[in-house]
Amino acid sequence: MTPPGPGGAAGRALAIDLGVRYLGTSWWDGGRLVEAVRLDPGARSDGAARTLLARELADRLARYEVADAPLVQIVCETPQDYVARTSVRTALDRMRSTLDAVRAATGPRSRWTLVRPAEWKANVPKTVHHERARWLLRPDERDLVPWHDPDVADAVALGLWVLGRAGRGGARPGPGPTFGRRGPPDAS
Fold this sequence. Notes:
- By secondary structure, the protein is α/β, with parallel strands linked by helices.
- The chain has one domain: Ribonuclease H-like superfamily/Ribonuclease H (Nucleotidyltransferase, domain 5, 2-Layer Sandwich).
- It has 6 helices and 5 strands.
- Strands 3-2-1-4-5 form a 5-stranded mixed β-sheet.
């Protein structure tokens, strides 16, 4: 799949990685990372947690939007079934319910694109993918990311892909070899 492209007005996008209990989010404006945070419902029950996450995301989105550029593209990784175990399916069902609640709370002013993990990150291990994302960010953007949080790191990597700053699997976009152990690309 081709990335959806720069979101809304001037690359205004929100990338979401659904965790079992949390939402990892990365907020982009003008194609630059402006915030990377984990939304945490605390120790609430599933129904209350979903409602709280949905409300918090909608409130943040309302603060992020501005009158002259209200449209924000929201890209979210969809939960994908890999195994048939009941415990995994239960967790995926909770994640899907959270996604439904969050989508309903954001209203019609935002465009949603749902992507499967294989579409944007391929089979690249998380540690490699997060390191690639770290090197694709500008130095001032790197400091915004709590790299110890895998949901937020995934949301940042998804945002890079959506905006065309990363290829599938976190590789450098465009022709030529991807980078790995050789170090970061030239800073821009």
